[in-house]
Each structure stands twice: as C-alpha cells, then as structure tokens.
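Subject: DUF1573 domain-containing protein

B.,
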Amino acid sequence: MKKLFLLVMVAFVAFAVNAQSDSKGAVMDFSEKSKDFGDITQGDKVEHTFVFTNSGDAPLVISNVAVSCGCTAPNWPKEPIAPGATGELKVVFNSAGKMGRQNSVVRVYSNASEPIEKVSLISNVLPKGK
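Prediction pasted inline below.
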C-alpha cells in the first residue's frame, strides 16, 4: 500500500511540474531598450516612451520602477497589462547640472519571467551657449 501511495504521489508531482512548465506567465518584451538623443544642451529636458508587450499568458504587473538618478522621472501603467496587450513607460531626463555623456538607466520590476528589465536614455550634454 505504501508503494502504491508513493507511486501516485510521484505521478502527481510529475504532472504538476509538467503543467507549470507549459505556462510562461507574464513576459515583458520591449520594442527597444535604449534611446540615444545625441548632443543636447545643458538644461534641456528630453523624453521618450518605451513601448512593451506582454507576450506571456498571465497579466503583467509592474510593481516598481527605479531610476539611476533624480534627473530621470518615469511614468508607468499601474494597472495589470493583459496577455497580448501593450503598455508604455514614459521617461523624462532633465540635463540641468549635467555635463558630458549621460546614461540614465531605468529598472522595471514586475512579475514577469524576467523580473527586472532595464531601459536607458543616452545623451551627450553640452554647455549652454553664451
């Protein structure tokens, strides 16, 4: 009887693991991961909207978005993104007080199969003309 019980349990666990592997969960696919603005003038504000698709089979929930400095401000959807739907992450970079090459990294935390995604705004900040 113990062997039969053990065999049934092993079969159940194998079935459960197989069922989970068929499900992808939420998957966040960005159409682009960086935006290079080239040369900008100190004090300029530049913005870009990163578009992503939930190519998984479960709702995508963004729990937090973190930036590398206070010069970058993100805006992201607070509602779940349905499978197959798209969402937008708007990012604004303020070059005030910055000089030279800048790479503002934005980390997106979610319930996706890859829980942390990164996108970035790149620019070269030139001094203001006199």
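The chain has one domain: 26-126.

T.
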